[in-house]
Amino acid sequence: MKPLLPQFDTSHIAETTAQQVLEEFCITQLLSLIKHYSDIDFDASQMHLTDAEVNAIAKLFIQELTRSVNGKLIAGALNALRHGEEMEEKGKMGENFPNLQSPIPTPRYQEGDRVQWKTANPDWGVILGRFYDYNHHRRQWMVCYIIQLAPNSPSAAWIATDTASEADLEKIPDPVESNEENGNPYRYKTRSRRAIESRSVHSLTGRYNPRQRHNLRPINQREKNIIDLYSYCQLGMTPKQFYSKWDVTYEQISHICSRSLGTVQCWFNRGKGYYPPKPVDLRHLAIMDFLLEHFEEIPQSLMNLLCSS
After folding, report:
1. In Å, what is the CA distance from 4 to each residue of 1, 7, 11, 13, 308?
2. Beta-sheet strands, E only, within the chain
3. For residue range 35-90, what is the model confidence (pLDDT) as tens digits?
4. Which of 107, 118, 104, 125 is nearest to 274 (CA)?
5. What are the residues whose beta carbons fall under 8 Å from the beta carbon of 190, sequence distance 6 or more?
6. Nearest residue to 164 via CA among 201, 200, 129, 199
7. How far apart are CA 198 and CA 189, in angstroms?
8. Residues paired with 38 in a beta bridge
9. Which SS3 state, helix, strand or coil, does residue 132 take?
10. Whole-model pTM?
């Protein structure tokens, strides 16, 4: 008699290994998130998604991510891995690329709502849209809104629209129905009466046609180097640094950055009221600081080209 060799269920081992691979690359978490996701725009429980539909949606997301991968994204991820010594290993990537399971807040306000900043002499206006932003200072997702300032809002003299986080805003009552006596300071309808007329963000038909571009200047190696120099330039100055260096007011900073007074005041708040400036704001202040320091050294002919009326 020959001794029987021990039998192993290799199918179970293969299944376990495959599951481990899926979990390691967060595929399982992504599928679960899609299958149970719910917010103001989408509720999976109402859609009764099938497993095939969930898999197809996840495949589309992964394909889109694959197409969007570039050198900047990879370099940023590598930099976070190598130089995030003050954070735990799992937190390194999470701080720069928040995972999909981070809680997404439900928006408190809708398009057409009238809101104002929680500041002294606040700006106010109507919400045109919203988006999500990850606040690295608070380590959480935030709802942010695009706001069209009312014509009589304090900052409307130099900007028409601005953005603000939900925590920095509060809703104000809708105005009474406009008539010949009281008028309407908005000059457009509010959501409580009628929906705001949609405005297209695209150019008018015929304004832009990529096939009708003429006399284009070539992009050679010199031009590519200059583009890279500008794109990767770390030029930036924080509002607090600029404010401590120059005897300026919040209003002047709002002019420089094309922001509302309410947004600028949030840059100087502490604790929960703090809202960080965007990279474009830091660059505005750095360029302004450079001009204040070196304006007389710039040739007048060059100034005429840069700042022509």
Report:
1. 9, 9, 20, 21, 92
2. 114-117, 124-135, 140-149, 161-165, 169-171
3. 888 777 777 887 788 888 888 888 887 877 777 777 766 766 666 555 544 334 44
4. 118
5. 112, 114, 126, 174, 175, 196
6. 129
7. 11
8. 43
9. strand
10. 0.45
